[in-house]
Specification:
Layout: H1 2-26, E1 27-29, E2 48-61, E3 75-86, E4 89-97, H2 103-118, E5 130-134, E6 141-143, E7 146-150, H3 161-173, H4 184-194, E8 197-199, H5 200-204, H6 206-223, H7 230-239, H8 241-249
Parallel strand pairs: 1-8, 4-5, 5-7
Antiparallel strand pairs: 2-3, 3-4, 6-7
């Protein structure tokens, strides 16, 4: 009996130690983008101004539906091309796959996502040249001066879609791997100083995902603190102070957001 109780006690101790190790050290949120999904909403202001139809032509670019086990390559598709104009920043071309059938249906998609891109703070459009829109239940993507959108992505159909847009624009405009504003060697110093990741995804793929995973929460605490829970606010402030300070010091243009 004593031996059985001792083994049970040891098991409880091991579980407690594992829990403490996970909770105290590695990351803050297990599902980062889907934790507080009101950082931006449809009601927020946008700097999007006008949309012009340019032409219909063949485009060679990525479509995640073409992915294979060995990777995936660019594909050719016909697209309706629109020019979106924003306040204070250069325009972007919105390329809507002609699978949407008509120019009018394509324009509806271009207006929806052009307006959403205009809700981004201006610095998150510095690297943006194109937005590419396909059908299909595949994940969005960022990089290549582009935000890649699949309108059937189940994660992006709910109220978290604006947060996904922020994340992908972080890749496009901030990641140094895509020619973005944040040098990796400087950012990596902040990671080491904080000793904690914002999310499990960032922990698993720090060089690829840490900037994009973090930028949502910098916007949350500096621009939309009333939209997130007090407990999450405290977790972010205490968990990644060096990253927050680094982003503060960049003096990014956050228009149309009002940030402190």
């Amino acid at each position: 009996m004593l031996k059985a109780n001792y083994k049970k006690f040891l098991g409880i101790v091991v579980l407690a130690l594992l829990w403490c190790n996970t909770s105290l050290a590695k990351y803050i949120f297990p599902k980062n983008l889907y934790t507080d999904c009101d950082i931006l909403t449809k009601k927020d202001p946008t700097s999007f101004q006008k949309l012009f139809f340019v032409e219909e032509k063949k485009v060679n670019f990525w479509d995640r539906r073409k992915q294979k086990s060995s990777g995936w390559n660019k594909s050719n598709f016909n697209a309706f091309i629109f020019k979106a104009e924003f306040e204070k920043s250069k325009h972007a071309l919105i390329r809507v796959n002609s699978e949407f059938k008509t120019k009018e249906k394509a324009e509806k998609q271009a207006l929806k996502y052009g307006n959403m891109a205009g809700q981004l703070p201006d610095f998150l459009r510095t690297g943006l040249k194109t937005i590419t829109i396909h059908k299909g239940d595949r994940a969005w993507g960022g990089g290549n001066n582009d935000i890649l959108i699949h309108t059937g992505d189940r994660d992006a159909k709910g109220k978290c879609v604006e947060e996904i847009m922020i994340h992908e624009s972080g890749h496009t405009s901030l990641d140094s791997a895509w020619g973005g504003l944040i040098p990796w060697y400087q950012w990596n110093k902040m990671i080491k100083a904080d000793k904690k990741y914002i999310s499990k995804y960032a922990k698993d793929f720090p060089k690829r995902e840490d900037v994009a995973e973090t930028i949502n929460w910098w916007i949350a605490v500096r621009c939309k603190s009333d939209r997130i829970s007090k407990s999450n606010y405290e977790k972010i402030i205490k968990g990644i102070p060096n990253r927050l300070k680094y982003l503060d010091e960049q003096n990014f243009d956050t228009y149309p957001l009002v940030c402190k």
